[in-house]
Design goal:
Blueprint lengths: L2 E12 L2 E12 L3 E5 L6 H8 L7 E6 L2 E2 L4 H5 L2 E4 L11 H11 L6 H9 L13 H14 L4 E5 L7 H16 L3 E6 L2 H7 L2 E6 L2 E7 H5 L3 E8 L12 E8 L2 E7 L3 H9 L3 E7 L3 H10 L9
Parallel strand pairs: 3-8, 3-9, 6-7, 7-8
Antiparallel strand pairs: 1-2, 1-4, 4-5, 9-10, 11-13, 11-14, 12-13
Helix pairs in contact: 3-5, 4-5
């Protein structure tokens, strides 16, 4: 599969501070790639480098096979971008700004634009200076989704949106995916990433610490098991792969199990004559916290 975005050992220094130490990942054609990490981990710096706004201090970054710094103009003609903080011309209306954004990208206001304005419930007749943060985000999102681009880059795009509008955003991203478009989504809303993304990359203090599909990563995390049996459950506590064992009674316990040990633990549970069994697969949040906690506390600050 072709890589639309290819980042190798990317570094960025601001004076003595190294914001990016070692960022390596790719975005394949037709996939939604989730780029996650807390504020200050380096997500926005990476994206600004990909967009050619910042020049890297080391490593390489290409989009459509072209160098992001020297070919920024030609690359931008083929992508749509929404930042986490959108600043608009205060004296223009929302509708005028949407049309301006489209024109700047050699696109036109279409029936699709009108459909998106309705979906995002935006009053386009109001001046931008009267807009809340959420409404400013809507203007940028409507312009981006109206554009026929090959790559869509979203950097914390739903900040300021209410849950209903966040759902509209997610549906539109999934529609792009169905159309074979490529999407790079930076987010700290894990449910958003979990619903939409084919693969994810986790960044911690300027370094990518893991990339892969959610299923691949879940193999590295733990499943929470709640079990009720006819025979006492105490013997399960000492088994290899069992963690955080909490006996609710002699015959009921809640514990987590390493995914690779799940089969043998369930086997042992069945020997105790199961009355009730509930298994909850790890969420992206569990996974994320595990990666962030394994090397001590994370440090915020871009």
């Amino acid at each position: 599969m072709d890589n639309v975005v290819e980042i190798k050992h990317l570094q960025k220094r601001f004076g003595k501070f190294q914001a990016l130490k070692d960022v390596t990942f790719n975005v394949q054609a037709g996939e939604v790639f989730g780029f996650i990490g807390p504020n200050g981990a380096g997500k926005s710096t990476t994206i600004r480098t990909i967009l050619g706004i910042l020049r890297s201090s080391g490593g390489s970054a290409t989009v459509f096979g072209q160098n992001v710094w020297s070919n920024a103009v030609s690359i931008h003609k083929r992508l749509a971008y929404v930042p986490g903080d959108v600043y608009l011309w205060p004296n223009l209306t929302g509708g005028e700004v949407i049309d301006l954004f489209l024109k700047l990208n050699s696109q036109k206001h279409s029936a699709r634009t009108d459909e998106l304005i309705k979906k995002f419930d935006l009053d386009t007749s109001k001046k931008c200076r009267t807009y809340s943060k959420g409404n400013r985000q809507k203007v940028a999102l409507i312009a981006a989704f109206s554009s026929d681009a090959e790559l869509y880059i979203f950097d914390e795009p739903t900040s300021g949106l209410d849950p209903l509008m966040e759902e509209v955003f997610q549906d539109e991203v999934l529609a792009l995916k169905n159309d074979g478009k490529s999407v790079l989504l930076s987010s700290h809303i894990l449910s958003e990433v979990e619903r939409m993304c084919d693969r994810i990359g986790i960044i911690r203090e300027g370094t990518i610490i893991e990339t892969g599909t959610l299923d691949e990563m879940r193999q590295l995390s733990r499943t929470v098991v709640t079990v009720t049996t006819k025979q006492p459950v105490a013997s399960l506590e000492t088994m290899d792969g069992v963690h955080n064992f909490d006996a609710k009674s002699a015959n009921k316990a809640v514990f987590s199990v390493d995914s690779e040990k799940l089969n043998q633990i369930i086997s042992a549970v069945s020997n105790l004559e199961i009355v009730g069994l509930q298994s909850t697969p790890p969420t992206l949040e569990d996974l994320f916290l595990r990666y962030y906690n394994q090397e001590g506390d994370s440090h915020d600050g871009e």
